[in-house]
Amino acid sequence: MNLLAVKNLYVRIEGKVIVENLSFDLGPSDRLSIVGPNGAGKTVLLKALLGLIPYSGEIVWDPTARIGYVPQKIDADRHLPLTYTDLFNSKCRILKVAADQIEDISPSVGLTKEMLATPVGHLSGGNFQRGLIGFALIGKPNVLLLDEPTASIDELGEEHIYELVHRLQEQYKLAVIIVSHINKVFLWDRRRKRSRLRFSRSSMDHHLVTTYMTMAINCPVRLVPLHLEGVHDFRN
Questions:
Q1: Which pick of 57, 69, 194, 216 has the fewest CB atoms within 10 Å?
Q2: Does 152 share its domain with 201?
Q3: What's the CA gap between 96 and 150, in Å, rounded?
């Protein structure tokens, strides 16, 4: 059973093809990494999967799929007295789920009571991102979409976030689609026994990429084609 099936997907923005003839599927507990440079269309792809922008082709979510989404960035007003406690409680009310989920999720993403009570604009980048991940987990999703979750975090914080996502996937039995740059996704994949990556990068031979990534993450790597604007396909 697949939670998601994508077939012959096209996305055009202002007449320009951004995503071209893309097909893939996602099963329960699968992890799909979408890797490429800025401007390749990775965020556009996630928005299409969420139904936020027009597209042609097929995007079919299984009726059992419950989606959590972690955006790339949210600009928080440092003067706004809004805390993650406020945000978590609001989402629980909107989804009509028990607020005791907050007590389970907060420690699992590393949020202390003090962090929950701190205005979101005053949190560090890493703790702010932990809050976004926790927010996405409310409602008990079985699919988690993450758009460059370490984009504004230092190197040490990046490793902590990727290790956190890895642990959460195991803990909550999540299927995960994660968008990132190649050097960052190494942190995410290096402990996996196998890897499935959609790779969009125009400057490297696919055999070199496969060898390099296999050595870096110490597991077999399969590159599958990703047709995005301004990038080259790598095929096994």
A1: 194
A2: yes
A3: 30
